[in-house]
Write a structure and sequence with these properties.
The protein has helices at 191-194, 218-221, 268-280; strands at residues 8-11, 14-20, 34-38, 60-67, 70-72, 77-79, 83-85, 92-102, 105-114, 117-130, 135-146, 152-155, 169-173, 182-184, 201-205, 209-215, 225-228, 234-237, 245-247, 252-263. By secondary structure, the chain is mainly beta. Strand 1 and strand 2 form a beta hairpin.
Length: 281
């Protein structure tokens, strides 16, 4: 079913993703639109929503822990020399409308608001494309424009003093299973090897599914991957890895990530072939 607030993405007539634009969430979860559930073509769910280990993980979307000191990720804020701290600094992403909406995608306008003011305006473009009988691609682009009168910057726990925690940007919370998923790139494997490094693509393989993430622009490919498998299964593209990212007044930051969603456990060759096809479409 599709309503004004919950469009459903379809590939070859099959529902593969539900997009919630106005979720009813507590302020400390940094309310924001998200995709959940996202499924393979065979119907296997590959996202989780507000799992017990991290209630603020919301399927697939854009989440940033530090926009000029405001938390658009949810949960606690990492404070330098203090650690994770509960602060009243949460922002929200507010859906303002669709510029375009089709069964296979949409263009959405959003406002990022905190402390009674608007910091960023976002245009989000999402498209679903069939790749084969067992795989499809989610093409996700977000453009953030600074609508304040002065410069602002995006940070992460890493830029605030927590090594290895450069999360923030596009983020996919995958389903947690009894067995830890495998993670690999074209030339390495394992969470310690792939986390915090750049790679043209990165695959996360679960019990009967594989996700293959790829930066689809030169700038996006320069962002290292944030990867978790042991603690929980999640993959993100890090906007602020080693230093804060400035956005001047009126300027726009753009990132595009294409994700292959496949049934079965892909090997390196199959993952590489599908992601090449997905990015070239």
């Amino acid at each position: 079913m599709t309503t004004n607030d919950t469009p459903v993405l379809r590939v070859a007539g099959r529902p593969v993703g539900r997009y919630v634009t106005r979720p009813e969430l507590a302020p400390r979860l940094s309310p924001r639109p998200y995709l959940h559930p996202v499924t393979t073509l065979a119907g296997t769910a590959v996202t989780e929503l507000s799992p017990a280990d991290h209630l603020h993980h919301l399927g697939v979307g854009v989440a940033v822990p530090d926009v000029e000191g405001h938390n658009f990720w949810g949960g606690r804020t990492y404070v330098r020399d203090q650690g994770p701290t509960e602060l009243d600094n949460h922002g929200a992403q507010r859906h303002t409308g669709f510029q375009l909406r089709d069964p296979d995608g949409f263009v959405e306008e959003l406002r990022w608001v905190a402390a009674g003011g608007e910091l960023l305006r976002e245009r989000r473009t999402v498209a679903a494309t069939e790749l084969s009988d067992t795989a499809w691609a989610l093409d996700f682009t977000f453009s953030l424009t600074n609508v304040t009168a002065g410069p602002l910057s995006i940070g992460s726990p890493a830029t605030n003093g927590r090594p290895g925690a450069a999360y923030g940007g596009f983020f996919w919370r995958a389903r947690k299973e009894e067995r830890t998923p495998d993670v690999f790139t074209a030339d390495t494997a394992g969470e310690p090897e792939v986390h915090g490094r750049c790679a043209d693509w990165l695959a996360l393989a679960g019990a009967g599914w594989t996700l293959v993430f790829a930066g689809a622009t030169e700038q996006t490919r320069r962002d290292p991957w944030f990867v978790r498998t042991a603690e929980y299964p999640g993959v993100g593209s890090s906007l602020a890895h080693t230093e804060r990212v400035p956005i001047a007044a009126g300027d726009t930051l753009v990132r595009r990530v294409v994700t292959v969603v496949a049934d079965g456990r892909l090997d390196r060759d199959a993952a590489a072939a599908l992601v090449r096809k997905a990015v070239s479409l």
